[in-house]
Write the structure tokens for this entry.
Amino acid sequence: MAAQSSNDPNSMEFSTSKVYENRCKPGGLYDDMISHAVDEKHTHSYLGSSANTLGHTFEVIEGKTRPGSDWRTYKVIKTDGSLSIMKCLLVGEMRNRKTGTRMSAIGNFYVGSGDTTYSMRDGVNSKNVFMIGEPTNSPGSLSVLWNNQISEMNNISAKVSRLAKGASVTGLTSKGPDGQSLIKLMSENIYVNDKEENKSEAPASSKVLLTKDTIASLNDDNQHRAPPTPPQIDEEPFIRLGRTYPLNYFPDHVGPVFDQAHSSIVQHDVFDIKGQPVPPWELPGALRPGVVGLFEGYFNIWCPPNKNPIVQFICTSVRVAGESMEAPEYPAIPVCGGAEVNDAEHAHSKRSSAFESFGSNTKKARTTEDNEMDIAPPNDAIDWPPSPSTRNQHVMQISRPPSPTIDKTDNRTNNTKSKITAGGGSKPTKNAPRNKGKERAVEPN
């Protein structure tokens, strides 16, 4: 059978090209994102907008030492007098596992090497890792927004280095295999320790009076007592924010790595292009390489004794803004175990109005191929084969669980930022030539 041509509308190459092409159309995804980022109501929420600058709208300060340790902390706070933690929005396009992305039951948990192995136990922190890059075929204005994010993150790292007396600070930005800039994002913890969460004082109980005079009445009450109601079993998991799930909902939660008895999977604030929450085990499909997203979160910075500071951006909310036709990278099963505790803090606060407002219902009502910013493949077109293990470990075949229902209730410092104005739209600026859309590195099959 002859191979399909890239000009064949049914070929994957043609479909992927069409997806990226639609983003650049007038009124398409990229225009929507820039218009939202320069809107007066939302511009202060975007790290890459001209409204946010280190030393003006936010600052890095040294925080309190962590209780019971000598670990120093640093905070990125607003300079509006509130001393509140700065949450901000980032935009970017998902990159593949080769660049460092990790979405699985194991997350960024360190499984060890050689003869030194570890097990994931209850209470051990593990997070997903999202590596994002500049969106493919970005117009000049979107390139400016992306580069401004890189600039501010590098400036934050430089400020932390000065506060830490010249210590080396890395972790936020890097260069990918293709030489282009990447930003490393972390999810919140994948698991919650139910044993710790459910710790509470035992409720006080009262005794029933048992005497010769009460025996008859107690026996009579027992004869008329209704039989106990059997417990209700949730046969299908309703995907909703704020809930947790059993460990076996992760198809790759198999093998000696996992030694958890009291843990549950946490539902994170991750939303698909229709605004529906994405269950944790479906993240590799929802956030596959090529997906454009909005990532809201905060900076988590600490410094262990005699070590360099560790800087992370913790995503508290993720929204898919543009779909991708690239294949998802489902996880493999590591056989050896490992545990590297990460005591990062959590910021539990509501999603910003800027995050919530992007992509109104009227915008999402466009469904034709010519108007829709991206077309998602149908669910039955996605299998669940494990990807090649990046740790050269033995891989066991895994099966996918039944689909649940949805409850619909450049490392430079002292960088200067380019200005983005509402009139920019998708037109390239003189200082930011149009990105010609270099080919991104793709992990070979």
Observations:
- DSSP finds eight helices and 18 strands in the chain.
